Amino acid sequence: MSAPEPVAVVGLDCRFPGARDAQEFWKLLMEGRDGTRRVPEERWEADRYRLADPAAPGEARPPGRSNTVRGGFIDDPDAFDPAFFGIAPREAAAMDPQQRLLLQCSWRAIEDAAMAPEDLAGTDTGVFVGVMANEWAHLQLADYDGITARHGSGNGYFMGANRVSYHLDLKGPSLAVDTACSSSLVALHLAAGALRAGDCDYALAGGTNLIMTPVLNIFYTQAGLSAPDGRCKPFSASADGIGRAEGVAVLVLRRLSDALADRQPVYAVLRGTGVNQDGRSNGITAPNRWAQQQLIERVWRSAEVGADDIGFIEAHGTGTLLGDMMEAQALGHLTSGRSGGSVALGSVKSNFGHAEGAAGIAGVVKTVLALHHRTVPPSRFADDENPKLQLSGRRLTLLRSPLRLPSGTVHAAVSSFGMGGTNAHAVLSSPPRAVHRSGERVPGVFTVSARSARQLGPNLLAQADALARQPEDRLAQLCWTSNRVKSRLPHRVAVAAGDLATLVAGLREAAGRTHDEDGAVRRTAPAVAFAFTGQGAQHPGMAASWYTTSPGYARLLDEIDGHLAAHLGLSVRDAVLEGDPGVHRTGLAQPALFAVEYAMAGALVDAGVRPAAVIGHSIGEFAAACAAGVLDPADAARLVARRGALMEALPDGGGMLAVPLPEAEVEALLTAPGRMCVAAVNGPRSTVVAGHLDELALMRAALADRGVTARPLTVSHAFHSPLMRPAVEPFRAEGADVQVREPALPVFSTVYGRVMGGEERMDAAYWARQLTAPVRFADAAAELYASGVTHIVEVGPRAVLTPLLTRLRPSGAEPVSCLAAHPGERAPRHPLHHLLGQLWSAGVTPAWDSLYPPADRVPRRLPPYVFDDSFRAWRSATAPELPAPRLPATDAAAAEPPAAATAETCPPIPDGGSPHRVSEVTRRLVCRVGGHDPAAVRDRSRLAEDLGFDSIQVMELKTRIENELPELGSLPVEELLASLETVGDLSRYLGERLLVPTASTAPSEPSAPEGPRT
Question: Which helix (H) or strand (E) holds 188?
Fold first, then answer.
C-alpha cells in the first residue's frame, strides 16, 4: 500500500484558555502554565449548581449538581466584528458565538497562510468543522414566542461550517462533524481526504467548543467522570477525571506539492490519518484499547512509519484512570519494541482541559507548532506519573522540560477518541527545508488595510511590532506579501521604505494618526490621468532616484536614450544621472525632459497604473502622445531632438513673464503685439507672456506700478511666440514622414484647449503649430476635470503642474486628487513606491510584482487581521446581557433585541413633508431591522455589503414599511430588490411611489417573497 499524498499545513489560527492566538498558545505550552480558572460570571451562577460537599465514594451524587466550578475558559467569547463580514448586529446577536469564533479564526488562518481570503472566493475550498456543543440553541430556542427567522441560521451544527463557506464565498465541501471528543480530528481526516481526492485544492479544518451551561459539568459529575478541581491530569497518579475547556482553531491545508510549487510557508506535513469505531465494547462511553491499537497500527503503516520513526506522541489524555490505562496499553503495544530511547508523550489537556469538539484540533495545533519550532513542550504533572501505567516499560515518557528535536525529518502522532467510540489518529512530520534567500536589496511598499478606519491603528501596530523582529534582508519579501494579503479592504495605509527601521517607524507614525471613516476607497474603479510637465521643470540630476529604485524606469530610460543619442550625439541618460548643468540648455533640456517623462510614464504603466487620459504642457505633449499610442518612441525622439536644436539655434533676446491676471486683461496690456503675445494660459489669473526682453521689462514695471507682481521665468527664449516662427517650417518638414496613429485614449490638447476628436491628428502640422500657439492648459484641464477622472498624476521631474491643477479643480464637483510622480528636490527616497502607495490607498490596484525581483516574491507570514471587539452579544441561562425590548404588536413577528441600537434610539418620524418623512421612516426601519446605531446609517450605506441585509431581513423590512406607510400598498418584491443597493436608493424609490400614484401602489395581493435557503 503506497503512502497517501502528503498534505501541508500552511496556515493556522487559534484561541484557547490563556491564549488569544497561536503565539500566546505556544508560550503557554512552553512555560507549562495552567490555563484554567473559575467559571466566569457571565456563563452561569456556578455556586448554584455546585455540590455543597463532594460525595463520598460509593454515595449517590445529588442530581443537578456539579463537583467543580473551574474549567478552561477563553476570554471575551462574545466579542465579534459583524460589520467586517457584512452581518447586521441583530443577526450577529442571534448567532451561536461558535459561528462567530469560526468566522474570525478562519479569516486569520487564511491570512496566516500568506493568502488574501478574497483570493479563495469562488474556489472549491472545503470547510470541515468539528463541533460537539449546541448549548446556544438550548438557551435560545426554549422561548418559543421569541423565535425568529434568524434563530434558524444562527443555530445548528451545520451552520458552523456553512457560515464560513457563505461569508468567504467558498464553493467546496462544507460540513460539520460531531463524533463527540474526536470531532475535530475526524474533520481533519475528512479534509485531507477531500484534498487527496481532488474535491478541493484548499481546505479549512477546524473545531470549536464553548461552555455556555453547566449541563455537561453535571453529566460528568453524575457519571463519575468530572475532576473536582476542574483540571485534566493526563497519565498522572492524581488523575481523577475530566476538566472541561473551550477553544477554537482552524488549519489551512493544501497538497504539499502545490504549496512547495508556490513557495508557500509550511508549518508541518500531514502524512496519514484514519478513523475507526469501538463497536460493541464494555460500554458505549468507555474506551476500547483494541480499537485504538488497530487504528494506530493502520495509520502508521499507511504513513510508512514505525515506532522508531515517531519523535513524540500527542495523546488524547483525558485524565481518567480508565482512559489513561487504555491509551497507554494501546500505544505501548507499538512503542515497547523501539530500538532507541523512549518516545515523548503528552497531552495539551494538561494545560487547560478537555476542549471536547475542539480537543482533537488543539492537539494537532500543539503538534504542528512543535514540529515548526522543532521543540516539544513539557507535560504538566510529569513529576507525578502514574506508576500503574508502566510508561517506562512501554518506552513512553512524560517530559519534565522541553525536548529539542533532532535535525532532519521528525514524525509525530496525534490521537483523539470520542465518547461513543469514534476514534481518530494522525501522523505528521516536520516540513521539508526550504530556503528562500532575498536577492539584491530593493525598496518596497508595505500595505495595510482594514474594514473600518477605527481598525487601521491596531492593525498598523500589529504589523509594526512583528516587522521589528524580522531580518533586514526580508524587507522586499514582507512588502510583497503585504501587497498580496493586506491590500483588499477599503481603509488603507501604505508605507514605502528601503529598510525595515524606516518601515516600522512609518507604520507606527501612521497608527498614531486619526483616520477618517469617510476615507475609504471609491466603490468605482479610479480613473487616472497623466499630466506631462513642460520646459522649466528640468534640473541637474532630475529624477535620478527613479533609475536606481525602478528597474522598469531604468530599462525605458536606457531605451529612449538610445533613440535620442542617434540624433544628439550624446547620452541624455548620462547627462541626467551625472547632474550635468547643461540640462538647462534648450537643446538638451527638451530631450532630457521627454526622456524622463517617457520612462516615468512607462514605469507607471508597468506597475499597473494605466492612464485613462493624457494632457501635456508644451514639450510634455510629446511624452503624452507616446503614452496615448499616437507616436512611436523612435519618431518622438527624433522630433524632440530636432525641436530642441531648432529652438536653441534661434537668436537670444527673448523671455517669458508670468502675470497673475486673467488672459483678457493681459491682452489689453500688450503694447507691441508683434513682439509680445500670450504664450500660456495656466489658470483664470495665471497668464504667461512671451516676447523680447526689453518689452517684457517695460510690462513688468507697468504692472508693478499697479501693484501687480509679475515674475520672469528662467528660460532661454520666448517660447510659444512669433519669435519661434523661423523654426516652424524646418520642424514641419522634419515631421512630414512621421507615422501618426489614432490615440488609444483621450488626449486633451493644450494647443486646442480641449479633447482632440474627429479628424484632428497630432501630425506634422499640429507639432509645427504648437511652436507658436499659446498653451491653453487651463481650458484643456477644465475639460479633463469634466471627463470623470478621479486622479491626475503629474509625470515629470518637479511638481509644476500639480499646484496649477489643484487651483483649477472645480468646486462642488466630485473631488479629484492631484499627485506628483516626482515632487522635485522634496521627492521621497523611493518616489515610484511612494506614488503607488498613494494610488493604492485611493483604490488603484498596482501590478505589485513589477517592484520586486523574482527572488523576493516569496510569501512570508504576517500577523493576521486584528478585529474590532467592541460588539458584544451573549446569552446565559439566567442573565442575558442585552434586554429584549417590547415591540409593538405589528412587530411581533420580529420581536428580538437589536445588538447595537433599539428602535427607540432611532429618530422619530416628522409629520410634515412626504419625501422627508419617507427618508426618516426608511432610516428608522433599517435601524430596527438590522439593529444598527442610527449614527452609522447614511444614505450611501449599502444594505447588503455595509449593513448585512439578506433575503430574510429584506422581507422583514418590506413588511415593516408596508405597516408604517400603508398608502404605499403592497411593495412588489422585484422592484424593491432592484432599489435596495443603498439606503438612499430605497428612500428615493419609496418617495417616488408616494409622489406618483400608480396602479402598482393600490392594495394588492402580496408578491411571493424569495424564501431563505433550505
Answer: helix 183-197
Query: 3-state class of 345 per DSSP?
Result: strand
**The pLDDT of residue 145:** 72
Question: What's the pLDDT at 945?
Answer: 82
pLDDT category of residue 54 using cuts at 50, 70 and 90: low
Which segments of 415-517 does DSSP mark as H helices, in order? Answer: 456-467, 475-485, 500-511
Whether the Cβ atoms of residue 804 and residue 683 lie closer than 8 Å to each other: yes
pLDDT at 904: 35
For 866-879, what is each residue's pLDDT tens digit?
999 999 888 643 32
Q: Are residues 706 and 726 in the same domain?
A: no
Candidate list 181, 200, 626, 927, residue with the active-site label: 181
Q: What angle do CA 979, 982, 986 make, to 5 degrees?
A: 45
Tell me the pLDDT tens digit for each residue of 617-667. Answer: 999 999 999 999 999 999 999 999 999 999 999 998 899 999 999 999 999
Q: Is the pLDDT of residue 938 over 70?
A: yes
Show the CA angle centred on residue 75, arms to residues 71 and 81, nearest 5°. Answer: 140
Measured from the Cβ of residue 55, the count of other Cβ atoms closer than 10 Å reads 14
Phi-psi region of 798 (alpha: psi -120 to 50; beta: other; left: phi over 0): beta
User: What 8-state DSSP symbol labels residue 944?
Assistant: T
> What domain range is 661 assigned to?
653-715
Residue 335 lies in a domain: yes
Cβ atoms within 10 Å of 28's Cβ, excluding its own: 20
Catalytic residue, chosen from 316, 333, 717, 833, is 316
**Section 574-583 average pLDDT:** 94
C-alpha cell at 875: 446569552
- Work out whether strand 247-255 and strand 202-209 pair parallel, antiparallel, or are unpaired: antiparallel
Per residue in 177-194, pLDDT (tens digit) is 999 999 999 999 999 999
The enclosing domain of 319 has a CATH number of: 3.40.47.10
Q: What is the DSSP string of 698-749?
A: HHHHHHHHTT---EE---SS-TTSGGGGGGHHHHHHHTTT---PPPSS-EEE
Residue corresponding to grid cell 469634466: 786
**Nearest-angstrom CA–CA distance, 697 and 538:** 25
> For residue 418, is it within any domain?
yes
- pLDDT for the residue numbered 906: 40
- The CATH number assigned to the domain holding 755 equals 3.40.366.10
Q: What is the pLDDT of residue 59?
A: 64
Q: Is residue 955 part of a domain?
A: yes
Domain check: are 710 and 816 in the same one? no
Tell me if residue 316 is catalytic. Answer: yes
Q: How far is CA 357 from CA 132, 141, 191, 493, in A?
A: 5, 21, 16, 39
* 855 & 871 share domain: yes
- Domain C-terminal end among 698, 715, 732: 715
Residue type, 119: D
User: What is the band of 149 on the pLDDT scale with cuts at 50, 70, 90?
Assistant: low
Pair type for strands 174-177 and 70-71? unpaired
Query: What is the β-pairing status of strands 613-616 and 528-532?
Result: parallel
Q: Which of 167, 354, 411, 491 is catalytic?
A: 354
